[in-house]
């Protein structure tokens, strides 16, 4: 069986050349990492669940007119996406204080923020993805001021869409991270949502019980990550048939 050409291997996903120019195959691994990869494990079934959930969220965004890189899911672990130039920023939107914001500002986790707050981290593992301001972004040329306006608008639309969707299944969207890609259409460039949207990149709390249904379960050793992600998938009706016992990855040609 012919192997696809690997373009990039990240912590949770591997990218392969797509079947047509301008496309990429995104393969979801079972690897879980936290604290800049200081904590690592393999969580059987995580990749399958994230593939299904990211498909679900990205398809919804495409449908309501928020452009994303998602084209279609290929199989249990792979999806076809549009190739794009990744803006080197992690764009974080917060509705409630948690994680690094709670630590940095001394705000108790779960405190509702006066309004959604958008933050940026510069994507650089060696530096531990430091928090940066729009001033840094403009001065160092990571994105233009015009790009930044588009990025904030995109991030807030994703937030509105995801918050409502989560609320409908009894989940509070505490915060999330997205990545932004640049695509070129003739002389124009457009910014789209890229990477993934999954419980790896969001904080999701059950509205009733406050139970964590996201990667904090792994970061903080709170129980079974597969059970948490399976619960999210069940609520959205996107349960893969073999979520807990997936077959080993096979790359199709
Ligand atoms: N996040 C992410 N990747 C990262 C850093 C953060 O997906 O490299 C997500 C994280 O899951 C959470 C949000 O972004 O939903 C805010 O994370 P925070 O800054 O609180 O960092 P953490 O406490 O996870 O280190």
Summarize the structure in words:
With 253 residues, the chain is an alpha+beta fold. It folds into two domains: 6-84 and 225-236, Phosphorylase Kinase, domain 1, CATH 3.30.200; 85-206, D-amino Acid Aminotransferase, Chain A, domain 1 (2-Layer Sandwich). Helix content is 28%, strand content 32%. The protein contains six helices and 14 strands. The protein has helices spanning 46-63, 99-105, 134-139, 145-168, 216-219, 225-235, and strands at residues 6-9, 13-17, 23-28, 31-34, 39-42, 70-73, 78-82, 85-86, 89-96, 112-122, 131-132, 171-185, 188-194, 202-206. The strands form three sheets. Strands 8, 9, 10, 11, 12, 13 and 14 form a seven-stranded antiparallel β-sheet that branches. A five-stranded antiparallel β-sheet has the order 1-2-3-7-6, covered by helices on one side. A hairpin with a 2-residue loop joins strand 12 and strand 13. The longest helix is centred in the middle third of the chain and has 24 residues, at 145-168. The termini are close together. The mean pLDDT is 95. Uridine-5'-diphosphate binds next to strand 9, helix 2, strand 12 and strand 14.
List keywords for this structure.
single chain, 253 residues, alpha+beta, Phosphorylase Kinase, domain 1, D-amino Acid Aminotransferase, Chain A, domain 1, 7-stranded antiparallel sheet, 5-stranded antiparallel sheet, 6 helices, 14 strands, globular, binds uridine-5'-diphosphate
- What count of helical segments does DSSP give? 6
* Net shape: globular
Q: What about the largest sheet?
A: 7 strands, antiparallel
Instruction: Provide the number of structural domains.
Output: 2
Q: Under the CATH scheme, which class of the largest domain?
A: Alpha Beta
């Amino acid at each position: 069986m012919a192997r696809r050409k690997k373009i990039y291997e990240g912590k949770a996903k591997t990218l392969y050349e797509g079947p047509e120019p301008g496309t990429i195959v995104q393969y979801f691994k079972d690897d879980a990492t936290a604290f800049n990869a200081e904590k690592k494990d393999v969580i059987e079934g995580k990749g399958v669940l994230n593939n299904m959930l990211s498909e679900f969220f990205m398809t919804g965004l495409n449908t309501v007119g928020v452009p994303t890189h998602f084209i279609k899911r290929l199989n249990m672990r792979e999806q076809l996406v549009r190739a794009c130039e990744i803006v080197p920023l992690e764009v974080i939107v917060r509705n409630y204080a948690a994680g690094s914001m709670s630590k940095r500002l001394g705000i108790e986790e779960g405190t509702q923020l006066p309004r959604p707050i958008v933050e940026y981290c510069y994507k650089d593992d060696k530096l531990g993805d430091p928090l940066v301001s729009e001033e840094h972004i403009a001065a160092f040329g990571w994105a233009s001021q015009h790009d930044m306006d588009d990025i904030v608008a995109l991030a807030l639309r994703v937030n509105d869409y995801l918050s409502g969707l989560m609320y409908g299944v009894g989940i509070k969207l505490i915060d999330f991270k997205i990545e932004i890609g640049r695509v070129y259409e003739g002389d124009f460039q457009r910014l789209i949502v890229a990477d993934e949207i999954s419980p790896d990149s969001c904080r999701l709390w059950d509205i009733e019980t406050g139970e964590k249904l996201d990667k904090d379960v792994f970061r903080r050793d709170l129980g079974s990550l597969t059970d948490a992600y399976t619960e999210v998938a069940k609520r959205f009706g996107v349960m893969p048939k073999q979520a807990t016992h997936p077959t080993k990855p096979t790359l199709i040609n």
